[in-house]
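Everyone, describe these structure tokens:
***
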Amino acid sequence: MKEIKEKIIHFLIISVIVIVLSGHASASDLTNITKNMATDAQNTLNLQNPHNTLLITTAGPAKYENSTTEDALQTVKDEIPLQYSNILQLNKPNDPVTFTFVKKENNNAYAIKYTILESGWEKTQKINIGPQMTGTQFTTASKELGYDILAIASAWTAGAPLDMLKIAAWTGTINDGLITAYAASKQFIQNYPLESNTNSYHVITSVGGGDDDVPMFFMDSTPLKWNGNYYNFRSTYAKDPNENIYIWWDANSKTGKLLYWTINDNVKYSGPTGTLTELKHDLELLTLLSTNPASLYKTLKLATINDEQFSHLWATGIDKEYINSLPQPQETMNTDIPVLPINNYNSLYENGKKAVDAANQAFKEAGLPTLTKEDLLITSAGYSQTLGLTYAAIDGVIDSTGMLLKNIYSLKRGTQTPLWYVFVKKPTIADGPLYAVFIDSEGKIKPVLYNGVSYNVFDISAKNLEGNKGTEGYTKSLAVYGTYTYDIPAYAQQDYYIVSLANQWAVGMPYDFMLAAIGGGCPGSGLTQGYVIADLIKSWLPLTGTQYYVYIGVPAHCKEQVIMQVLGLSASKGTYYTTGVRNTQALSSSQGIAIRWDPSKNTGKAILIDYDKKILTSIQPDNNNYYRTMYWALWYITSAFPGKELYSQLQEAYSIKKEVTLTKTEYYQLLAAGDPVEYLLNFQDVTPPEITATVKDSTVYMDINEEGTIYYSTDGSTWQQYTNPIKLEKTATIYYYGVDANGNKAEAQEITVPVKTEETQPTTPVTPTPGAQSNVIVLPRISSISMAEGQASVSHYAMPAPTTPQPVKKASYLSPHKTVAGTSYPALALIAILIIAALGYIKRGSILHTINNVKSTPKGK
């Protein structure tokens, strides 16, 4: 009996330990946390009117327990009245999950920011962010919300256009650069509209300054698309971070219109950043959008260009001397055109409801159920501006169907794209049928004409469209193309996007991949490869502290959009660059350069990513379907994505060709290089590391600014490796030096440490020995800006300043389903049940043991 009891006790102890240790938050925990948080926000701010409520959030791409958080966003939407247009998702996948609620109230505005924790949340106080904000109120708001969120919230309060705010959410803030680019791009588009499939927009930007992402949204000019010989986006390196080249191009005549512009001198903010002065300055600029938008930007050159001139510009970037030599066109650009879009909310809201009614009627006639929250909408609403702002149409769809936010695919298109809706019924099995209906802006169905019969509802599943040329599936694909296509510009590929997105939705593509697929990425095999590359970068270069990613896209490819999305990159923030070319002669198999930058040490680690196509083709199944790359994308998602069975094999196709540590100077040299791949391949690290030493409470703390080893000595002759802080009991002199991973040795330094001293300032870091830089290969920069100029200027703009969280007073709130220790109440209940059951078993065992003993007693004894 004793052995049985001991075993039961051991079992109970192990069970309790396992349950407690596994008491991490689950999806249901997050739902409960966000639901209670939303209730708190609604009660605190009295959120009742969706028109007067704004949500700025990292939810969706940001991770909680290593999973994306789109369901948490849905929970908030279910609890609080919110318009789709008033939900701003920040492109910050590496940040904590946060929700900032903003409410307009009479002539004022208030905000609260919530940060999700494992077992609950913490929140700021209710903050006044109204237009009459005092200096003290601004200090509080900026400290608790963060300046960038405060800037976006203040712009919304002041009436900034919704299409600008959506860009601000991607960029991460709103500033003079973004506001100016809004005006310049809108006027350029209206002066030079796309009128045929041979027309296209192309953009060359100088990174940083806040203006670079605007054409991605309005012109659909992204790094992965091209027309003829030219890609649509190139982000480069120039002295002025607000210099931009917009090109309207006609592939038929091989001529185009070029606008070279920058921010106006009297508009550019030059004071201290992150201040109330800057905020007020930017809010004043917003008023110019309605009164005098042309005053925001300065035209440096307007020119007509030919193919040779375009080719030179695309190869060299922003070459001032060459641009100024271009002939001036006869006509001038009309700068009196208004830039603010029409915002007829009620009309577009009804348009969305009308589309739902038409789709439901078609589904009924086909013997299918009407639309539910589990079905899918793919639409140009949100980007199409032919009828004005179209976000309200999505609100109409959501209110009519209850459709989940994660099933709303607002597809990034150029503003000239007509408004349309494609509704797709959720399939009963992953490979279909996938029934879809196409509705135009007038609420009319566009039927698919197949074999002489019009189908209002058509199966667009990969299974139904599968087949080589001449087969039934191929012919069906052509029929879908005939209905769904829109080819202005030629790379719009509207039918492909719709069919591919619907099928990837059906097999359950990851949420962060989906955001890239609808956010400008071509949803094919190239985009899926980019998702793999982004995952590898995170494993090769994991982030800590205030570190962040920078990426140079070489070559420009479909992978770019998802790498930007998953790593949280932005040209406007100075973290995304692309050469805009298909291949580099230095290494044709290169896939790009990833950099992990550490702002606290002013150094970065760069890796050149290489690719072996043979490995991929050996495992990737071939196909000759009409929508060929869609089938490859489906293969990646179902078989070769992270966590899938073939992922380990796929990883072998990618490798690090070279990795180096960069100082700030070398970082700028890399950006300025004509071919960054060639620069890295020829790079020689001859720069010694920098060592800093600080003293606190008679303890010496040392740090090295790159990968390497620190050595120290107390007598200057006997050296040992520094691994932990050095605690001293008496005044002493410490000698130290460092050696980086490439063997570069820093000169020895010394620091005298008095016992019980106040904290000292860091010692001056070791500077590179004279002449050390002469061995670094610097490729000539093909631009009119000298290297010295570039270093002096871009150092201010291209490197985003690290955001150091300020200590603020916050209230902590536990989820009612979580204990302080992190173990859920259901888990504790399970523990109690186990104990009661065990005790019962022990008691029962004791009784049975007694009975058995009685039974075994001989009669008469």
